[in-house]
Amino acid sequence: MRFKKGQSGNPRGRPAMSKEVRDAIQANGEVAVRRMSDLLNDDAAWGPDGWLKPVVQIKLLAIAHERAFGRAGAVSLNQQIVVAKPGENVGGRTSRQARQFAALIPKQ
Q1: Which of 6, 47, 74, 86 has the greatest CB tally within 10 Å of its CB?
Q2: Global model pTM greater than 0.85
Q3: 44: which DSSP letter?
Q4: Is the distance from CB of 97 to CB of 40 less than 8 angstroms?
């Protein structure tokens, strides 16, 4: 089905959320942020031998990054990506989690 130019595909918008559901989400938001922070600070969770599966580590980092800095723009196929080797200082910063994340990336 095609829409006419300027016509919304969802003219009624998002369905209204009940006050009870909205209150429950807001009440648990602080707990969710605290738990995510605990996971991000748990060094035993990270790296190839961490208790979090590598795919979960990447998803958690992506969510945390998106919440902190907003969604990333599109990446072109020829864009240069700089990945720090463990112990390497990139941009004046190093972190144990960044080094462990870099260790998850397959070596070429």
Answers
A1: 47
A2: no
A3: G
A4: yes
Q: Are 102 and 84 in contact, with CB atoms under 8 Å apart?
A: yes
CA distances from 46 to 8, 49, 51, 56, 97 (A): 44, 7, 7, 10, 7
- Cα separation, 69 vs 96, in Å, equals 20
In this structure, the number of other CB atoms found within 10 A of the CB of residue 79 comes to: 7
Query: pLDDT of 76-105, one tens digit each?
Result: 666 555 555 655 655 555 566 666 666 776
41, amino acid identity: N
Q: Which residues contact 60 (CB under 8 A, 6 or more apart)?
A: 36, 39, 40, 52
Question: For residues 83 and 102, is the Cβ–Cβ distance under 8 A?
Answer: yes
Residue 63 backbone dihedrals phi, psi, to 5 degrees:
-65, -45
